[in-house]
Amino acid sequence: MLRYRRYRVFVAFAVIALFALYRFGAPSASWQDTASSQPQPISNWWPRPQLPHETKKLDLEIPIAKVSQTLRRPPPVVPASSPIDRLPIEQASPDEAAERPTITSAPTSSEPIRWKKQTEHFPVPSTALIQLPTGKPIAIPRIQHAFKPESAAEKADREEKLEVIRNVFKRSWDGYREYAWLQDELSPTSGRFRNPFAGWGATLVDALDTLWIMGLREEFDEAAKAVDKIDFTTTPRNDIPLFETTIRYLGGLLAAYDISGGQYKNLLHKAVELAEVLMSAFDTPNRMPETYYHWKPNYPSAPRRAGTSAVLAEIGSLSLEFTRLSQLTGDQKYYDAVARITDNLEEFQNKTRLPGMWPVLVDISGCKLVDHSAPQPVVETSSVIQEPESSTAAEAQSTATLEVLLSPNGKEYKPLDLPDPVVLVAGTSPSEPAQPPKALRRRQLGNVQAIYEEDGPAPTPIGPHCEDQPFLSAAGSGDEEYTLGGMSDSTYEYLPKEWLLLGGLVDKYRAMYESSADVIRKNLIFRPMVPDEADVLFSGKLHVPPPGENKPRLEAEYAHLTCFAGGMFGMGAKVYDRPEDLEIAKKLTEGCVWSYDMTATGIMPEAFISTPCQDIHDCKWNETRYWNEIDPNAQERIDSYKLAMERYEKEMISASAWYASQLAAMTATPTPSASNAVVEVAATATSGVTGADASQNPAARKRQLDVEPHSNSRPNTVPSFQGSLDRKVIIEDGDPILLGQQDEALQPATPVQSSSDEPQPEFDAETSTPTMPEFPYVYSPLPPTSHEDLVKNRIEQDRLPKGVVAFPARNYILRPEAIESVWYMYRITGSPHWREAGWRMFLAIESATATTFGNSAIDDVTKKDPVLRDEMESFWLAETLKYFYLLFSEESVVSLDEWVLNTEAHPFKRPK
């Protein structure tokens, strides 16, 4: 029977459907035609019925609506960032950009924050500036070999190689120009870009002089003009890395100006513009720079100190660039800035734990905290100092309440208590203005020490209360590290180069270099044990503990960064007449060539560990010693296993004795029943199950099974088990097991846990089964891997060439240091061997790193097919390809007797 209530929903639906057919079935344009007559957005394609329009204007009396309101916009959202924002800014690849719709961001009214020149807190009066040396440069010995004219065949071969190298450069430059123009670096695999520095076009500036050297004049002209678009007053970073910015940007601009003969004046103007920003990093009490300069106005407006743990290379590798800028502009303040660093390094050089060298981390703060009745906060890297209140505009900038500032390491520094005002040189009366000093007590300004006359009033210190302090090691009570590798390298490199740039007129650079070279030769340079017994040298790391503790320890690690040392020793040997150092230079460079030849790709890794020879003059290959270096803990593993076995045997004896005692404490073992004895089971109702469910559903009731032995039974009673009526219990090897239906597998019976309060049957202790004791767990040690197996497996798995113990870093990031020394050796010795080695290195690098848009860093040089990492450092164009090109150029191109190259391979003109 049809019931209306049950089908009323279907009836309603039918009525609606009929109405829709009648309403929209008129012979007018169909909704499909209407919809297709005009394009509709994809998200809104369904037709909408026409809505009635109101013909009479709605006019409501709302008083507040008639009041003029000022439009208020919310402040722009500023993304959170750390004080050192190193995250790259990437751009979509060309393919991705073509597929994605163009999105135009809404314009923002907020202008980017820009650097502003602040009134210096610790200025150096012009009369106190350290001046460039004057006079005619001294006669410096010739560096380059006297080359003979080449044959026609040699010239053709050389020029063919030059063209190949130039084409590789052009591919990388074109990729940068198309996909990363005015950005820091190209991502050569994806066609994107990165900005790891300040976003000021690092590759463009870094490659300027290479463009000129390779004869790419049109590209140079375009790039030199594009430099004007770089804005050095703002950057996405919160800080400016002083070292990297100096060697890449400032060095690149000055070298491009020099190499082009001063034709492009804008390059020098932009160099000055950048230097003004960088000079602000030197505005500290002792005029030592902040190695990561926080440029935003709220940071430099407050006085700051230099760091307590500065990287040696970051303070010792600024001299060439700032010196050359002073030479070109005549402004002495740039040279003064780096000369003060040199003075401190000179004073510190013979006071370290390894006199003659400097540790990789140095306290350059100049502040030794002193307790003045009240505890003062310990000020670490880039600490903030607050100036006293003053009515002048310059001093008013530092009197505002300081917010919590962040150092480059992310630490918080809160404002310090306001000290008394700083008095420089006061006049004799209130109406007499302060006068500049007549004489300096020290060049070093120390702890905010004012410049004053010898007979003038004592300066007032600015908190925290400090005593003047020279450079110190930042290692504290730990080991100090001394190396020619990363964190130190270019400090030593710049000593002879600065001497050359100053025309040999400042002799301290020569003395500092020769002192360090002797210590390096004695303590860091070693001969590695290699299978072909090649006579090569490496330079390692020396770890020096505090006095009175263990002896210094040499770490036989050789890093790609250290490969510059061959060129440095070669140059020092020529200009300082140290012929024995030239042999050291050759062998150090040969060590880098050997390091290239040893890998599957033919490229040296970032770092590897070798085995140092006991004797630098006699070093035979010793397979046993090499294996012991790979597996130095073989004997310890054997000894540890022996101790573990002894402990295991003792524990077994103890456990066995305990187990025997437990068995003895038990009653005598009864006569065992026969295995697999069948026991009849009589089922009885389980007490404690009550209620309707128990009476209505007998199958659901629990049953207590009393087990009686059927035959050959033991005198002991078997505990009750839960089961159905048609199951039996068997005794198998002393364990009760339920027998179910024929199609069920045997399974252990489950004891019934009664919830009834009724008394349970008591078991006679004489007839119950005693619980057997469990034997204690005693773990036996696994035998150790044999020395032979471990070494063979490690050599195979880690792809260790013979002579290499381990790879701390397997990657290659297009570094130039090895080819740099090869070029120096060719120019110094004139041997064609170095050109042959250099060409082999070039082919290996190009084969492993070439991409569509340039060349990329790779993940592992020990693989035959390494993975491209989509990174192309700016020094690939600035240094690596430049050195390859110069290796096959005519020897007069960038002659070492006319030019001196900074650590980024930027050539500066030597004085005549």
TrEMBL record:
GO biological process: carbohydrate metabolic process; ERAD pathway
EC numbers on record: 3.2.1.-
Domain of life the protein comes from: Eukaryota
Disordered as annotated region, ranges: 72-111, 688-725, 747-771
Pfam family for this entry, one: Glyco_hydro_47
Keyword Cytoplasm: no
Keyword Metal-binding: yes
Disulfide bonds: C563-C592
Family of this protein: Belongs to the glycosyl hydrolase 47 family.
Designated name of the protein: alpha-1,2-Mannosidase
